[in-house]
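Re: the request from the purification team.
They wanted to know what the chain is likely to look like in 3D before they choose a buffer screen. I agreed to run a prediction and write the result into the notebook, where they can find it.
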Amino acid sequence: MTRLLTPAQRDAYERDGYIAPLDCLTTDRTSAMRESLAAFEREAGMSAAEIVFKGHLAFTWSHALARDPAILDVVEDLIGPDILAFASKFWIKGGRDGAFVSWHQDSAYFGIEPVELASVWVALTDSNPANGCVRAIPGSHKGPVLRHVERKGDRNLLARGQRIEELDDSGAVDFTLKEGQFSVHDVHLVHGSLPNESGAPRIGLAFFYIPPHVRSTVGRRAADLVRGVDEYGHWDQDPAPRFDGDPLILDYAGGARRDYTREDVTQEAEASR
């Protein structure tokens, strides 16, 4: 028995590796979220996109969004009733700023075993081909973890500049979303995005959800229990924000970023190929 997804949607997820679009937020809520992000950027002198690994902990509203039933009912249908938000990130592209996301698989760099994870991408603005929406190669989740090359120094928004090269992307599809909608994709799906060629920002927030039986392969880490119970105890509990832009949370998120960019996480990705 599923909570929300139809049999056709489940079949599409298994066949193609993704479902999109799905509805979640009203435009009033997305507008308030964008205003909060703009205020944070003015006051903190940084973008929320710089919070690489635990972005949803930085704001009370994003902490609540990670628990939104519209999202979690979909995730539960895919990974089960007990759910941890293992990681999250704001994906922000300014108008014509040249930023892009190279072809990659989420499974290559997270350092988890077994590799069971559902990636949710929530559109806080419209996300379409003109402003650099998420693109994916249907069915690529059925193959192995591919070789990723790390190359920094360009406008790639991935923290390590990781990318899959020499890839046939002729069958790529766009995840076109209206603001307030979301997509969900398999951890092994090859995906990325092109630059924003419009004059306005494109803003999204991605959540990476795992079931509690999944373990960290690079030492003990923390996650955010958002639904159900954790009967395994493999993860410490992430703290909750006291208020938007909580400096204690920002310090905590900085430590999580250092853990994510450790060399042994890369070695784990190499070993899984």
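For the purification team: Residues 264-273 have pLDDT under 50 and may be disordered.
Please add any questions underneath this entry.
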